[in-house]
Each structure stands twice: as structure tokens, then as C-alpha cells.
DNA sequence: CCCATTTACTTGACAGCATGAAATATCGAG
DNA sequence: CTCGATATTTCATGCTGTCAAGTAAATGGG
């Protein structure tokens, strides 16, 4: 049963172990995210949108792209945030078709507190030294196919 | 600005970078999971339950525990699997209150094919050497506070 | 300018997920 | 047997998500 293309088959035990670990991380991350959102009486989706809006007014369409869902879905989520005074809709002067969803002051505060309670992967990471975190970062970047951004003299594009 | 308790504050840039990467991994994992499920005309929840059932008949209550949701929710999910011939309910001879959800033959086949298309973190991991995967595994284990299981002579409980 | 097309958003219908409360059936202890 | 705990289901409700249809505004070719 030669594995001609590489040193590891898909059922390589080490790889499976890492896959399992990542599954665990994903599960725990979600769990904690929903929990943190619930603490502020938000659903996961609402928390994600509010997090986006706290970075600045955003067209509905862009929100849908970031959430990878249909724009019609965003309408409802922003409606619920709006009805709670956490977000508002503004008109884009540059294009009257678009509506910019923006966090209100209350919304920004909520988003801020939310961020503060998102301790996942901060707590756990505290157990690793700076060197280890660097190694972890580099491995994760390579896994994700991210080209690590050079500190300076970035090659264009 | 002394940070007396450790070498890194919660806003340490390196830590934030790793947190960000983990967020990316979580997002990608989910995306691919839902996609793989959809390929088999399943929702994410249905795929997760079917995956559980493919390992053996399971009481409804246990499914709820694994999914971290209310048992009443599981009823509907198993209903949908059952109406498609992927799962069935059996009575537990030992306790007539419990119903065991079990994958049918078709269900097991579907679960098998599903597993096969869950390529996330296998593809990406192919870019890492065995040594690197080992390092990654150890770091993730420590992050998760997992005591690495000894190869033998596991301490009980 | 005018019309067709495209783009941005909303609405409505519908399915699935998730919760909580209430009903049913069974178990197990006293 | 009776009481309390446990396992499941049903029902009502709300949120997320999709799709199809509709409105409004931008855009481009005649």
C-alpha cells in the first residue's frame, strides 16, 4: 500500500490526532462565543454583526458577505439589533440604494464588553511561552496558507 | 505599566494574532463542515447526529448531551433523519423509558461518505512535516489543558 | 433623455434549530 | 403502592437561514 505522493496518508494517526484537536478547539470556541453573547442577551449572529458594526458603519451587503449568508437574512438581524437600540440604519450619501448599519453608542459599549468576555484562547494561551506562541502562530499561518506579512519592505500585492 | 502576573497582557499583540488565527480556523472549519453536509443533503446538526449514531445506537438523552442542547431538540433532528431512512428508533430492553436512535445501513453509508469529504485540516496539514505536526499537536494539547495520554499505563478516571 | 439592466435592500413564505413548559410513561426507593 | 426522579415527546415561540418577488436607485447604450 505505498503512499507515493507524500509522507502521510489521510489516515495517518498523527494527522488524525491534530484534526481531532482542532475539532475540540472549534467546539469549545463556539460554546464560549455563544455563552458570552448570551450573557449580553445576544444570539451568536447578533454578536457577530454587532462586532462588525463596532468597527464602523457597514453596508448591509458587506455584512452578508462577511457572514457568508444572504442579504435578506441580515435585514432581520439588524432589525433586532435596531429594535434594542444597539444599531441604527443610515443612508449612504454616495449611493442612495445602500443602507449603512452602524452601532449606536450603546451598541459600541455592548460590543466592547462582549470582546472583554471572549476569553477563549487567551486564557488557554497563557500557558504557553512567547516563543511557543510564535511557533504556534507560524504553524497555524502555514496551515491556513496565509502568507505571513513581512514586518517591513512588503513585496507589493 | 508593569504586568506583574505574567509576561503577557490580554492585549499582547502576539496573543491577539493567534486568537485571530484560531477564529479563522473556526470559521473555515464550520464552513467546510456545513458544505460537506449539504453535499449529502444534510444540515450541520443532522450530520453531527448521524456521525454519532454511526458509532452505535445512542439514547436520545446522550445525543442531547453530546450536542449540548435540550433533548426536545433532538427529537426533531432524529425525526428528520428517520423520515429519510437514515436512522431509526429502537426500544432499550433494559429501560423502557429510553429510545435508542440508531443509524440504518443507508445512514451508516452516508456517514461514511460524509467523513470522507471532511477534508478540512487534512489538506492544510499536508503542508507541515511530521515534526511540525507533532509540535502543533503538543501546543494545541497544552492550550486545551489536555493531559497528553501516555502511550500505556493510563491513570484511571 | 430614455429604457434596459444591474445592484442594494426589503418582504413574505417556509424549513430547521433551539429553548422552555407541560404531558406521558417508566423506573426505583421507601 | 406511592412518590419523586428520569426519558421522551409535544407544543408554542423566537432566531437563523434560504429563496423568490418586489421596490428603489444607479448605470450604460441608443
Gist?
Two copies of one chain form a homodimer. The first copy, chain A, has 157 residues and is mainly α. Chain A contains six helices and three strands; from the N terminus they run ααβααββαα.
Structural features, described:
- The structure is a homodimer of 157-residue chains.
- In chain A, strands 1-3-2 form a three-stranded antiparallel sheet.
- Chain A has a single domain (28-143), classed as Orthogonal Bundle (Arc Repressor Mutant, subunit A).
- In chain A, helix 2 crosses helix 4, helix 2 (44-53) packs across helix 5 and helix 3 packs across helix 4 (71-83).
- In chain A, strand 2 (87-91) and strand 3 (99-103) form a beta hairpin.
- The first copy, chain A, starts with 12 loop residues before the first helix and ends in a 14-residue tail after the last helix.
- Chain A has 157 residues and is mainly alpha-helical.
- The first copy, chain A, has helices spanning 13-39, 44-53, 60-67, 71-83, 105-117, 130-143, and strands spanning 58-59, 87-91, 99-103.
- Chain A contains six helices and three strands; from the N terminus they run H-H-E-H-H-E-E-H-H.
- Chain A binds chain B through residues 6-8, 10, 14-15, 17-19, 21-26, 28-31, 68, 120-122, 124-130, 132-137, 139-146, and chain B through 6-8, 10, 14-15, 17-19, 21-26, 28-31, 68, 119-122, 124-130, 132-137, 139-146.
- Chain A binds a DNA duplex (30 and 30 nucleotides) through residues 43-46, 59-61, 69-77, 80, 95-99.
Amino acid at each position: 500500500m505505498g503512499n507515493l505522493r507524500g509522507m502521510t496518508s489521510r489516515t495517518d494517526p498523527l494527522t488524525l490526532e491534530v484534526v481531532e484537536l482542532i475539532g475540540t478547539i472549534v467546539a469549545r470556541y463556539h460554546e464560549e462565543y455563544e455563552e458570552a453573547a448570551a450573557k449580553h442577551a445576544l444570539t451568536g449572529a447578533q454578536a457577530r454583526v454587532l462586532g462588525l458594526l463596532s468597527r464602523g458603519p457597514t453596508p448591509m451587503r458587506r455584512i452578508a458577505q462577511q457572514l457568508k449568508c444572504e442579504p435578506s437574512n441580515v435585514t432581520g438581524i439588524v432589525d433586532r439589533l435596531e429594535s434594542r437600540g444597539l444599531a441604527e440604519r443610515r443612508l449612504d450619501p454616495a449611493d442612495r440604494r445602500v443602507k449603512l448599519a452602524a452601532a449606536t453608542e450603546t451598541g459600541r459599549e455592548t460590543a466592547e464588553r462582549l470582546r472583554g468576555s471572549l476569553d477563549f484562547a487567551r486564557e488557554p494561551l497563557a500557558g504557553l511561552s512567547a516563543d511557543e506562541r510564535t511557533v504556534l502562530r507560524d504553524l497555524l499561518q502555514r496551515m491556513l496558507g496565509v502568507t505571513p506579512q513581512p514586518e517591513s519592505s512588503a513585496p507589493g500585492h
